[in-house]
Design goal:
The protein has 17 helices and no strands. The chain is globular. By secondary structure, it is mainly α. Helix content is about 85%, strand content about 0%.
Length: about 475
């Protein structure tokens, strides 16, 4: 065989080898992402069930629950971002085959959740005063406080559950969290119904019962997760509650350093959509109604790339832990490609059924209703947004696997507010586009953010690839 023939044979072998790596990475990513995405959809299902039952109490109750939920989620998001740091810490330790560090990562998350829970709970427990200070009417503000008095106590169990979820995902076993969530959906529906309306001899507690039911379910989900983590393989070998009373301050500060930028980035994104709702309110009632429909569809679709994002954090973190630079790049880009393909498919489906989707919310028979028409238009305009929002989430998750969160926070501030909000405001009020201009602004800002994150991942991951790995 000639030298050229040997080179060609080696090249073919290398190509097949790399394709095998990519196929395995894709399979592992799907195996992790599927239960994670389904878990997020389960959470959406429980929240939707609560709103359906609350809605039967009347429009005032539904509006109060929306106001109360906003107060709760703005404060809870900070703790949720901190708990998101458990997964990359534990995944890197798992990749390095460092079981004690996996346990320490979870323990630091549990202690951090406990320490921040009281400041977080202060917001929902003072929700009425906050809403009155923001100019809300006294009656819905008081009703919202009633709801929050039942919901505020869910902070600790919910944060601990997120920490345990991060630990389980980091060691490639996210399935128990999905099983717990699936069991919680009907349990939540029954309990919330009984507590709101007072069936089976229970007193009718109204909005307080809705919040209390969520808290009880969150405690139940936490106890189930603790049982899995301490009694079932493969979790039991990590002895996660061993010396749990020890406060590991050095790791707690590391977790906060990673998680705090995630929290602020979440709040920046949340704030952008809240600001967009205000812009729609200035345009017209039809605009804000159509915006809420398009946003709810986005929230549901987002759960799939968000699950892939969580899987990307784990896969990238594990590759970092085992010093596999090529694996880091492979894990991140395979997750992004998977998310892009799924987002495109879902977007095409949404565009094709946009009028039917709008009718599900509005119950309108024809296509002449202004809100229905605008909702369908926003779903078309949002086609780019659906794809780029999924990509930014997965790219951000990949960077979290490398513990890189501070620079992405800067990117979020620039993309969401300097570019996205400015574009949305300008197109909405300085051009005839109106509501459509707001969604174009959201799409532009999100696309810019996704581009910056992907470029940063490309640069950082390239630095981890050794010359020997480049030849593999």
């Amino acid at each position: 065989m000639t030298i050229l023939g040997k080179a060609e044979q080696l090249s073919d072998r290398d190509i097949a080898h790399r394709r095998g790596h990519l196929a395995r990475e894709l399979g592992e990513t799907i195996r992790l992402a599927a239960p994670m995405a389904l878990t997020q959809l389960g959470q959406i299902a429980m929240m939707t069930t609560d709103l359906v039952f609350i809605g039967r109490l009347g429009n005032e109750a539904l509006a109060a629950a929306a106001l109360g939920g906003t107060i709760f989620w703005v404060s809870f998001t900070f703790g949720m971002g901190l708990m998101a740091a458990v997964a990359p810490l534990a995944a890197q330790a798992f990749g390095a085959n460092d079981a004690p560090m996996v346990r320490r990562s979870l323990r630091a998350g549990l202690w951090t959740a406990l320490l921040v829970s009281l400041p977080i709970m202060a917001f929902p427990l003072r929700g009425e005063q906050i809403l009155l200070g923001l100019g809300q009417a006294p009656v819905p503000a008081h009703l919202a406080q009633t709801y929050l008095f039942g919901l505020a106590w869910a902070v600790v169990p919910a944060l601990w559950f997120i920490a345990l979820r991060g630990f389980m995902g980091a060691i490639n076993r996210p399935e128990p969290v999905l099983w717990i969530t699936l069991a919680a959906i009907p349990a939540n529906a029954v309990l919330v119904y009984l507590l709101i309306y007072g069936e089976w001899g229970l007193p009718p507690l109204g909005l307080f019962g809705a919040g209390l039911g969520t808290t009880i379910i969150d405690f139940g989900m936490l106890l189930a997760a603790i049982w899995f983590a301490t009694r079932r393989e493969p979790f039991v070998v990590y002895r996660v509650l061993s010396r749990v009373w020890r406060v590991d301050w050095s790791l707690i500060w590391q977790l906060i350093a990673i998680g705090a930028p995630i929290s602020v980035a979440f709040l920046l994104e949340y704030g952008l959509f809240a600001a967009a709702a205000f812009l729609m309110g200035w345009i017209s009632t039809t605009a804000i109604a159509a915006h809420q429909i398009a946003l709810q569809v986005t929230a549901i679709l987002f759960m799939i790339p968000f699950g892939i994002s969580q899987a990307a954090t784990v896969r990238v973190g594990q590759a970092v832990g085992r010093s596999d630079g090529a694996g880091v790049r492979r894990a991140g880009f395979v997750a992004m490609l998977l998310g892009f393909v799924l987002a495109v498919v879902l977007t095409i489906a949404v565009i094709a059924t946009r009028f039917d989707i709008a009718r599900l919310f509005l119950g309108t028979a024809g296509d002449a209703d202004p809100t229905l028409e605008l909702s369908a238009t926003l779903l078309v305009i949002g086609a780019t947004f659906f794809v780029t929002d999924g990509l930014q989430s997965i790219a951000a998750g990949s960077l979290r696997g490398m513990k890189d969160t501070s620079v992405p926070l800067l990117f979020a501030a620039i993309s969401y507010w300097l570019i996205g909000f400015s574009t949305a405001f300008g197109l909405a009020f300085w051009t005839p586009l109106g509501a459509v201009g707001v969604w174009i602004g959201l799409s532009v800002g999100t696309a810019f953010y996704a581009t910056l994150l992907i470029l940063r991942f490309r640069i950082l991951s390239a630095r981890l690839v050794t010359p020997a790995q480049k030849e593999q």
